[in-house]
Write a structure and sequence with these properties.
Distance between the termini: 39 Å
Number of helices: 16
Number of domains: 3
Mean pLDDT: 90
Low-confidence stretches: 166-175
Strand content: 5-15%
Shape: elongated
Radius of gyration: 27 Å
Strand order of the largest sheet: 4-3-9-10
Largest sheet: 4 strands, parallel
CATH superfamily of the largest domain: HUPs
Structural class: alpha/beta
CATH topology of the largest domain: Rossmann fold
Length: 468
RNA sequence: GGCGCCGUAGCCAAGUGGUAAGGCAGGAGACUGCAAAUCUCUCACCGUCGGUUCGAUUCCGACCGGCGCCUCCA
């Protein structure tokens, strides 16, 4: 096995990675804020994290992944207030939708999906520790802030020390009172709106609610320990979210928070960042409605490296659909084959090596995909020769299983019994027509099938069909 | 203004100091009653201009173009 390497945002370099204890990778991934459907950009990040966990397992490690669900924040409260309801009424359906969408995209279950609102005591305790260490202070309104100038390492992750902060409109307009404009809220004093929507809890500083960054520190440390292996998220979270997580966690414990930080680049739509406020979001429900399978989107995402921006253009998904179709056809062929050749074994080994080499080199999925397609070409050529070596075929199947166990790109063969019976009957009729060389009738049947979205293939073993 | 990323074929996209993976689309051929699938072959002046080097798409600089972050956005 080659060495597993990852790009670490802390050092801005690709470096060897292994879990601290040698067998379990403790990984924290920032999850969605559940106040609307997560869009395809969000899912690009979650897909990158799915690739990460599957690759880590391929490397022989166990994975303990925690993904938080942010179920209390400004936007949720605003929405609940507008609807005259509580935040949980807003977040519950979207939490359910998130998991549905996630499954549609075949994103593996994390080991835990803790909610912020279920960890208020842990967060309060963390704030108390920070106050005790004198790095947090209470403002006049009862909110608690983290004083960034009392944490010398502040800005390391985002290289803030090297940049000039623009003291512009956004900072000046902050709604809360604080000592330094750049200090961030750990705990926000409750406002009427918070109380009305069920977004306020008791604390030593009165009623209030947690700041956004606090939940991740509290939950990560609760489930993964004060120091853990890997923290991942979208690139936009580097600053301020992850910077603040580091500050509050390390200030409290005096220990390294996450050993390695990984960030996925953005998904763009027609050249612009996919975001609600840009108005160019697309989500998984729309994918489903357009009949675009989860595997197609997986292919589209994995076809580019996770640290490069990826544009969702006109026919991106069409191209991926064709690529995935090819993989599906091959999977079926491999399953139905009866034997292989020596060269097939060689192709399988070559593919496995190339695949692992690519993924272990900072999750180079495009190159891993290339290894898969090269294997498909090589294996098809061998299968064409009609080899009879059963062990060789098993070897090829094992290689394909290993590869697809990570990429998970074989489209589902949905079994619709009624359709299948009808199709079988039509195919028989067509073959009868072909027997008597009545090709006009045969083509008419094929047209009938195509009209119902079924394509057929004649082969030496008979006629096969599939849904388009 | 500060920080960072990117510019490779019609499209998507890897990669390397010694003349460039893979996918989609296209072209030619094999197979087929015709198709489809599959197989074979084919398809690149690596943004521009300088510099370093025996040699650069790959390193350095400038420029042009695109994108992102700079307090709550994956």
């Amino acid at each position: 096995m080659p060495e597993f390497r990852l790009y670490n945002t802390l050092t801005r370099r690709v470096e060897p990675f292994a879990p601290a204890d040698g067998h379990t990778v403790r990984m924290y991934t920032c999850g969605p804020t559940v106040y609307n459907p997560a869009h395809l950009g969000n899912f690009r990040t979650f897909l990158f994290e799915d690739l990460m966990r599957r690759t880590l397992k391929l490397a022989g490690w166990r994975v303990e992944q925690i993904m938080n669900l942010t179920d209390v924040d400004d936007k949720i409260i605003r929405k609940a207030a507008a609807l005259g309801t509580t935040i949980s009424h807003v977040t519950e359906p979207f939490t359910e939708l998130f998991h549905q969408d996630r499954r549609y995209l075949r994103i593996e279950d994390a080991e835990g999906y803790p909610k912020a609102t279920a960890h208020i005591p842990e967060m309060v305790a963390l704030v108390e520790r920070l106050i005790a260490k004198n790095v947090a202070y209470e403002a006049e309104d009862g909110s608690i802030y983290f004083a960034i100038d009392r944490f010398p390492n502040y800005g390391h992750l985002s290289q803030l020390d090297k940049r000039e902060l623009r003291t512009g409109a956004r900072v000046a307009q902050d709604e809360y009172a604080k000592e330094n404009a750049q200090d961030f809220a750990l705990w926000k004093a409750a406002k009427d709106e918070d109380e009305a929507t069920g977004a306020a809890w008791d604390s030593p500083w009165g009623r209030g609610r947690p700041g956004w960054h606090l939940e991740c520190s509290a939950m990560a440390m609760k489930y993964l320990g004060e120091t853990f292996d890997l923290h991942a998220g979208g690139i936009d979270l580097i600053f301020p979210h992850h910077e603040d997580e580091i500050a509050q966690s390390e200030a409290a414990t005096g220990k390294t928070f996450a050993r390695c930080w990984c960030h996925g680049e953005f998904l763009l739509t027609d050249g612009a960042k996919m975001a609600k406020r840009v108005g160019n979001v697309a989500n998984v429900v729309e994918l489903r409605e357009q009949g675009i399978s989860g595997t197609v989107y997986r292919h589209f995402v994995f076809n580019a490296h996770y640290r490069k921006q990826l544009n969702l253009g006109e026919d991106s998904l069409e191209q991926s659909r064709a690529a995935v179709r090819r993989i599906g056809t091959f999977a079926k062929r491999l399953a139905e084959a009866s034997g292989g050749t020596e060269a097939l074994v060689a192709a399988a080994s070559k593919a496995e090596h190339a695949f692992i080499e690519a993924l272990f080199d900072d999750l180079n999925a495009p190159e891993a995909l290339a290894a898969l397609f090269t294997f498909i070409t090589d294996a098809n050529r061998e299968l064409d020769t009609g080899g009879t070596d059963v062990a060789a075929l098993d070897r090829a199947r094992a290689a394909f299983r290993m590869i697809d166990g990570v990429l998970d790109l074989v489209p589902e063969q949905e079994a619709d019994a009624e359709l299948a019976a009808w199709v079988e009957e039509r195919i028989e009729a067509r073959n009868a027509a072909r027997e008597r060389r009545d090709f006009g009738a045969a083509d008419a049947v094929r047209a009938e099938l195509v009209a119902r979205g079924v394509s057929i293939e004649d082969s030496a073993q008979g006629t096969r069909w599939k849904r388009l």
